[in-house]
């Protein structure tokens, strides 16, 4: 009973509303581009063995000449297309046939090392740089990843083994990462076996992820599904996610680096999400949330056979805020902990964080939650502030 009361104490009315229908717009008109080429025109071979990194790079370099002429489409036909990391461009549609599989190389040299993000100050797992994502883009406008449910497979098992054996020199790569980009649509695709987080829009605006399936083994380390990070205007809907960590994790930078960078995640909508996990949460906020998280609206969620359904993760030194969060119509089956507020996530990027930078958590509404076979309804772990009377 105590656990339930801890949760209900946070369930109040939020004074703001979110116009979800206007933000989550279909953008499939951008599937039609005046120029189109197939990856095979640049010498790619879809046998699952031939490395096609140069073919992808050359095709996209060619299509860049059409960016001011209505954009272009790069078509990936049926086959298994092995590749290392490659960059996208603005006004591009990357279109996968239903039987097309883009495979990430198992050679780490095919995933170049890049600088850490300024809001993190270092790699998430290790000091220094990080391996670049398989599909990567920076400072882009109007980018569409779509298809007839084609597949992007990171072949992450080699990375998971290196991570578990502690033989990596740099943080593992994401499967898809877009930085400082706007007008991004990811739809009708399956994402498999990411080495690390799967879809990572960071410093982005106007991002839509629709009808995506994201899968990784339940014991794979840190294979988050979708992580909006210091981003504004993100819509995630009609997705199925089953991974080894959080299905969706909303972030905004890490300790003093996130506080200094000061770019929040805000105006985020999540609808009709189904999934499960064993080591994470259905929806998580944090734990790297030092730039702030606000105006999050989530509805019609179904989580089953999972560790935790909804989590807000913070720590002393994070600073920032989590406010105006509205979650409703949640169905849970076989979930260990339904709702968890935890301020004990202690990993820090370095020793220069301010231990007096405390996160502010306010105006959280969670309502209409139905659960079956739930071990713990609610769990609250706060920060002990020295000097406060213990009977408060």
TrEMBL record:
GO terms for molecular function: polygalacturonase activity. SUPFAM superfamilies: Pectin lyase-like. The keyword Phosphoprotein does not apply. Pfam families: Glyco_hydro_28. Residues 1-20 form the signal peptide. The keyword Signal applies. InterPro entries: GH28_Enzymes (IPR051801), Glyco_hydro_28 (IPR000743), PbH1 (IPR006626), Pectin_lyas_fold (IPR012334), Pectin_lyase_fold/virulence (IPR011050). GO terms for biological process: carbohydrate metabolic process. Keywords: Glycosidase, Hydrolase, Signal. Coiled coil: none annotated. Belongs to the glycosyl hydrolase 28 family. This is Polygalacturonase. The lineage of its organism: Eukaryota, Viridiplantae, Streptophyta, Embryophyta, Tracheophyta.
């Amino acid at each position: 009973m105590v656990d339930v009361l801890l949760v209900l104490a946070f369930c109040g009315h939020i004074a703001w509303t979110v116009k979800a229908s206007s933000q989550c717009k279909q953008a499939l008109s951008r599937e039609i581009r005046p120029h189109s080429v197939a990856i095979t025109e640049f010498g790619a071979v879809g046998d699952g063995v031939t490395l096609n990194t140069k073919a992808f790079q050359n095709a996209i370099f060619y299509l860049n000449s059409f960016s001011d002429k209505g954009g272009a489409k790069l078509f990936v036909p049926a086959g298994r297309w092995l590749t290392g990391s490659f960059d996208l461009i603005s006004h591009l549609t990357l279109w996968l046939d239903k039987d097309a599989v883009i495979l990430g190389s198992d050679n780490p040299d095919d995933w170049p090392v890049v600088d850490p993000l300024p809001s993190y100050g270092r790699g998430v797992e290790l000091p220094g740089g990080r391996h670049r994502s398989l599909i990567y883009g920076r400072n882009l406008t109007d980018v569409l990843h779509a298809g007839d449910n084609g597949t992007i497979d990171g072949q992450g098992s080699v990375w998971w083994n290196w991570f578990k054996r502690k033989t990596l020199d740099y943080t593992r790569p994401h499967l898809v990462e877009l930085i400082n980009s706007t007008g991004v649509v990811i739809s009708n695709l399956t994402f498999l076996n990411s080495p690390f987080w799967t879809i990572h829009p960071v410093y982005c605006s106007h991002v839509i992820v629709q009808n995506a399936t994201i899968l990784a083994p339940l014991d794979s380390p840190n294979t988050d599904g979708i992580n909006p990070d210091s981003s504004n205007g993100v819509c995630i809907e009609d997705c199925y996610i089953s991974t080894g960590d959080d299905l969706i994790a909303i972030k905004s930078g890490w300790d003093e680096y996130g506080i200094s960078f000061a770019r929040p995640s805000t105006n985020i909508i999540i609808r009709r999400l189904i999934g499960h996990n064993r080591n994470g949460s259905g929806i998580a906020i944090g734990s790297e949330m030092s730039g702030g998280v606000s105006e999050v609206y989530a509805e019609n969620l179904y989580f089953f056979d999972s560790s935790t359904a909804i989590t807000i993760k913070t720590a002393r030194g994070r600073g920032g805020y989590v406010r105006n969060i509205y979650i409703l119509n949640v169905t849970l089956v076989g979930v260990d902990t339904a709702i968890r507020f935890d301020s004990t996530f202690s990993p820090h990027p370095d020793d220069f964080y301010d231990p007096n930078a405390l996160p502010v958590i306010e105006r959280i509404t969670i309502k209409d939650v139905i659960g079956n076979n739930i071990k713990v309804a609610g769990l609250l772990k706060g920060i002990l502030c020295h000097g406060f009377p213990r009977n408060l």
